[in-house]
Amino acid sequence: MCMALLRLLKSCWLPSSGRHAGSDGAGRQDGLLWYKDTGQHVNGEFSMAVVQANNLLEDQCQVESGALSFLDSGPCGTFIGVYDGHGGPETACYINDHLFNNLKRFASEQNTMSAEVLRKAYQATEDGFFSVVTAEWPVKPQIAAVGSCCLVGVIAGGTLYVANVGDSRAVLGRLVKATGEVLAVQLSAEHNVGIESVRKELQSMHPEDEQIVVLRHNVWRVKGLIQVCRSIGDVYLKKAEFNREPLYSKFRLRETFKKPILSSEPAITVQPLQPHDQFLIFASDGLWEHLSNQEAVDIVQNGPRNGSARRLVKTAMQEAAKKREMRYSDLKKIDRGVRRHFHDDITVIVIFLDSNLISRASSNRGPAASVRGGGERLSSSAYVYF
């Protein structure tokens, strides 16, 4: 099991001193920044960028374009995933390795794409990670306190599906023909108890527990521990048998619980794409902490498509530096780990929408693409257990 954990960590590492690749085929690295300025997907172009702040990169992401099932007759399109881990990288890495294949499996069974396919894919991924935690518990019990937000978009047959647990966010840039403006439309529901309606929903689901949400240091947290109330992983707040020693005391609740405190049920929206829908921005909350929806849409709309995601990341970092009254150039010199005190890991994927390609999506099976954000990997000797 230790070797399995080592392999899991190997797939999650972004080194602090990357180098520029010779081409943009697999992306490039510049220190803690990984980016792919442009690529092609079934429905248009895309741009990706990831900047690391934590000791281990806890954000993971992917773009998959082409077949969305294992059947030749099955749906094709584009899959977008942003996975913002917390407590460690293991859950986000597991999602990156398994969620898309789970989706393809259920799409093959139904021979179509649907909200139900997404829901089943999330549940299968959650169940799979539970199995990892059960296996690792005797040697690495702290894995029970590792989890991840999970934001997914699927474009298939002219329809956009968005599924989310946690507080990553998907935003649509929509052209208003009468004015020529491109307005931001938020597509995903967020599950952060800093939002009053989310707090009230959680309180209504746990009426017997007056401490289900606690205000600590001016931040609302579930049981005083975590800000999101839906996630993949975080088994210690879903299965009481993992909320005990030898889990660190800071994660252990004084009282046992009879039903899961957190949920892995995704909020899902389904809508047809319109010719005036210009692009989609999928990003971890590290971006939205510094930029509003409309600010992000304006940055994409007012610049070239090439490098859109990298510009969003750069602007967020500039805002982070400004808040700390320091220069952006000085912020870039701060190494991972220490960098986390200034901003979070930030992941951004921009998906441009070509209405002509979308309109004939049922017959258009290319170009195929499979890109994961994160850059170069180090040898196994670089990994340590924590």
UniProtKB/TrEMBL annotation:
EC number(s) from the headed UniProt entry: 3.1.3.16
Keyword terms: Hydrolase, Magnesium, Manganese, Metal-binding, Protein phosphatase, Signal
Gene Ontology molecular function, alphabetical: metal ion binding; protein serine/threonine phosphatase activity
Cofactor: Mg(2+); Mn(2+)
GO cellular component, as recorded: membrane
Domain PPM-type phosphatase: start-end pairs: 45-353
Gene3D superfamilies the UniProt entry points to: PPM-type phosphatase domain (3.60.40.10)
Signal peptide (from-to): 1-18
PROSITE patterns xref list: PPM_1, PPM_2
UniProt KW Lipid metabolism keyword: no
Catalytic reaction equation(s): O-phospho-L-seryl-[protein] + H2O = L-seryl-[protein] + phosphate; O-phospho-L-threonyl-[protein] + H2O = L-threonyl-[protein] + phosphate
Keyword Nucleotide-binding found: no
Name of the molecule in the record: protein-serine/threonine phosphatase
Source organism of the structure: Rhynchospora tenuis
